[in-house]
Amino acid sequence: MTKKLEWYEKSTDVDEVIPVSAKYGHGIDDVKDWILSKLPLGPAYYPKDITSEHPERFFISEIVRENIFMQFRNEVPYACQVNVINYQTRPNAKDFIQVEIVVEKNTQKIILIGKDGKALKLIATASRIDIEDFLHKKVLLEVEVKVKENWRQDEGLLRYYGYGGKIQAL
Fold this sequence. Notes:
Order of helices and strands: HHHEEHHEH
CATH topology of the largest domain: GMP Synthetase, Chain A, domain 3
Number of helices: 6
Number of domains: 2
Strand content: 15-25%
Distance between the termini: 50 Å
Oligomer: single chain
Shape: elongated
Structural class: alpha+beta
């Protein structure tokens, strides 16, 4: 190992060679310390109690999307768009969250719903548990699957869903 380290130090143009073992976790703290020593000091752009610039709705839709991926892997997820349609905080009751999953074909909708609605129930239950864990409160989650044919080719829908639409040539 020492010979390899010496070779890397002499033969490469790097600041420092840090041996790391992903298998055993050795050297991880050394890498973190090295990274932190290289970061420039600067002003804080957000207060310390803010963990992200994204709103809760973004994370809720990502949690539902993640559960779709976990359940279906390669079958449907790439044609799915998840939108939070309604989010009501209710002080004396569970927060109400309404989510729509948009797919391109009716066959995809059928797969997501499953026989007797079992697949959709699994998605909704797993998502509700994860959302409650994320928000640290109980929620009532309503999930609906809708078909919007070729939504991934519709520039207006892409912009509406937060994507840039067609890339303009320079």
